[in-house]
Amino acid sequence: MKKQRLVIAGSGSTYTMGMMMSLIEEKDHFPLKDLVFYDIDEKRQERNAEATEILFKERYPELESFSYTTDKKEAFEDADFVFVQIRTGGLAMREKDEQISLKHGVVGQETCGPGGMAYGLRSIGDMIQLVKDIREYAPKAWILNYTNPAAIVAVALKKEFPDDERLLNICDMPIAIMISYAKMLGLEVWDIVPEYFGLNHFGWFTKIYDTAGNDHTDRLKSKIIHEGFIPEDKEIANDVSWQKTFEQARKMLMDFPEFLPNTYLQYYLYPDQMVEKEDPNCTRARQVIDGRQKRVHDTCDGIIEQGTAEGADLHVDIHGVFMVKAAASLAYNLNERYIVIVENNGIISNLPHDAMVEVPALMTANGPKPFAIGEIPVFYKGLIEGQYAYEKLVTEAYFENSYVKLVQALTLNRTVINPVKAKAIVDEMIEVNGPYWPELK
Ligand code: NAD
Ligand code: G6P
Ligand code: MN
Fold first, then answer.
1. What distance in angstroms lies between residue 264's CA and the mean position of ligand 2's atoms?
2. What confidence tens digit (pLDDT) does each residue in 176-209 have?
């Protein structure tokens, strides 16, 4: 079994330590030869790197080398895999996205509505540059990108690198939802075989089977409706915000019982309710800064101080395990079935060919091989077409420096709709984003 050289780009991320635990957990299925951290923020990277060094000495002694750098050549040369998890503008800009949106009375969220638009315009340029840098030194490396807003980043990267067959956008939300399904059904999450369609953070499970082919869909729906729905992954199970989100997914299912919704649909289906429950002084970004980020920083500081990871508050999370398992399936041609983001190309026959859709695919050494889905019912088609038009317009606004296209994008987005508001939000976002955004005319 070939051992891999893996680069983590954006290694200062709050997800890095969970990813390290997942790499340890999965070492027999995705063995590493070398691990390299890459980030543009030396200090932010250092804390995770020093803690990882200690952790890996104790729990991954087989690793031949571990290094961290801000130098692109050093990082990407000879890479087999690059996991990309950057956040242009950091959590500070995420907080601004959320607060500005709420100030205008609309949903303030990382990837949905104006927040997704603002973050998208920040992410696209950095992601294009990063992919170019990786390709300069590692033309054949698999790039697994989960940088958000993954939906918009996927559209933009497809436009910039249409022929790059080793660039895959991926999101952990479907599998994070499936853990809860598995628990309710008494199954292992990896033994659930889902049917699913949509865009990233905008999709539905249509069937839930197990590996033997048994159909659990109706039983699952009934259990969710009658017994409630809660997050089960360790990373989010005790988080009040995620608990409310899962409860809202239950309500969505009661209102629209045909398919099981992705949790992010709450922002598009009940935008007013989402705005009402938000506190502009403590949006999700603030909760993450004071919660996940603080926890990870404290844990790393503790490991560094004590010189051991023994007893540290670290755990394997579904986010990390999913990315590693997906990578292993690509590396070793395992043909495992995962939900990923790919160009539609007729998979959903009544949606545009160029849409970047989120669907199940077999992950092979020659890339993801998605399954045909056929026509989707008109309600979902209508919703997806509006959302895809928004994603495409944000991307075109970036490439064409178009102010008008951004206003059009927000006018189409279900979280905004009102063009007067759309214009006011775009105007304020331009001011606040400054050099992070392309110049708009
Ligand atoms: P974070 O701010 O803690 O970490 C991001 C890191 O990226 C920082 O260390 C930063 O210095 C670095 N960075 C920024 N620009 C960079 C660049 N151009 N090149 C290299 N490094 C750069 O953010 P986080 O909350 O840990 O999230 C990281 C990313 O992962 C975000 O985009 C987040 O939305 C995404 N994410 C996506 C999923 C998914 O399902 N798609 C799941 C989890 C996290
Ligand atoms: C899920 C989504 C990601 C998102 C993450 C964290 O995993 O799929 O795209 O970035 O949640 O969201 P949070 O709001 O907790 O930072
Ligand atoms: Mn996601």
1. 10
2. 999 999 999 999 999 999 999 999 999 999 999 9
